[in-house]
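Q: Hi! Curious about what Putative ABC transport system ATP-binding protein looks like structurally. Here's the sequence.
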Amino acid sequence: EAMITMSKIEKTYKLGDTSVHALDHIDLSIEKGDFVSIVGPSGSGKSTLMNMMGCLDKPDAGKYILGGSHIDLLKDRDLAEIRNRKIGFIFQNFNLLGKLTAVENVELPMLYRGVKTKERRAYALACLRSVGLEERAAHLPNQLSGGQQQRVAIARALAGDPQILLADEPTGALDSKTSKEIMNLLTKLNDNGRTIVLITHDLTVARQAKRTVSIRDGKLQEGEHI
Ligand code: ADP
Ligand code: ADP
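A: Let's find out. The predicted structure is below.
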């Protein structure tokens, strides 16, 4: 069963008289339970594709279906709703709020959705447990290592119980040993059934996913083509 179906997706950025064809006729299908890495050099269109997948932007042309919803046909305000309900984001620089503890950071998505205090705390602790960090729940981000901060960010992404995790260079700020640990954690979440898409310029990281897709000059190709 498909989680993501993209067909003939186009995106062009216009800058005065010049334009950049950032996504060039993208066809991509991702099954439920898959773990896909999208690998490509700087400027190849990874972020543009990720923004599209994450419902932060809509294509100029083409069709995008995410978990049965026709994204390309939605109004912008409905896009945000789908995004909050279906997608968990993981970023290179963790994007944790520095004045909140680990568990409070993980609670945030539930706070926005109006989940009650007790339920929120219990679920956030369960999410921290699933990334092996329950004992650090009361720590502030600056009291945690980079790898631990990324695990908190992954717990936060899980707190919305998303259909899909989108990770944008999740190991970009980490050393190679910690990167491996984060990839092992993502693999474990995938083994438990979570669909994961990650973008990276790092082939070693990309190879730890089940499937690799390459992007270059806005064009996709199955497999490694670096
Ligand atoms: P990557 O994430 O692989 O580095 P991007 O998706 O950021 O690639 O960029 C793809 C191409 O689109 C690049 O040539 C980039 O310069 C261009 N681009 C990206 N965002 C914009 C924008 N907002 N306005 C104009 N050009 C952009
Ligand atoms: P640390 O204090 O470095 O986090 P731990 O004993 O908690 O040490 O964990 C050892 C390593 O195993 C850690 O680097 C961590 O990334 C990984 N790890 C621990 N628990 C889990 C878990 N539940 N899921 C994934 N990785 C875990």
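A: A fun detail: The pocket of adenosine-5'-diphosphate (ligand 2) is lined by residues 131-132, 147-148, 181, 185, 188 (CB under 6 Å).
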